[in-house]
Amino acid sequence: MTTSKGIANPCSLDKLTVHELKLYLRDRGAHVSGNKSELIKRAQVFVNLRMRTQQEIQTDDKENDNKRHAEIFCTPFGEKIPEPWTLNVLWVCDLTHAPLFRTEDLYNYLLLLSMITIFI
């Protein structure tokens, strides 16, 4: 059907039925009420602007979104970075998986950290 593919020649709008004009306008998100002359004027604007259908726009948006998603989670060297929402699978809220350390290690860490901040 010509309404879903688009109309190349604006003069061919007169040959379309009211139903076909309404389908053409509905595919582009326009109002479909009115008589044939109003529908032709409205469709003329979309033909002149070469307006795509909403389905074509949504398909392009999904493709661009997928492409951008692939670019975001990839390093400049081509390595894949995991999505942030997948990292919470191994997340725990307690210290059961914390590395073992002695009290002396903690003391040295805190003391050396304070010494470094004093000299900076």
UniProtKB/TrEMBL annotation:
Membrane-spanning intervals of the chain: none
SUPFAM superfamilies given in the database record: SAP domain
PROSITE patterns (alphabetical): SAP
Gene3D superfamilies: SAP domain
Source taxon at top rank: Eukaryota
Coiled-coil region(s): none
Residue ranges annotated for the SAP domain, each copy included: 13-47
Protein name: SAP domain-containing protein
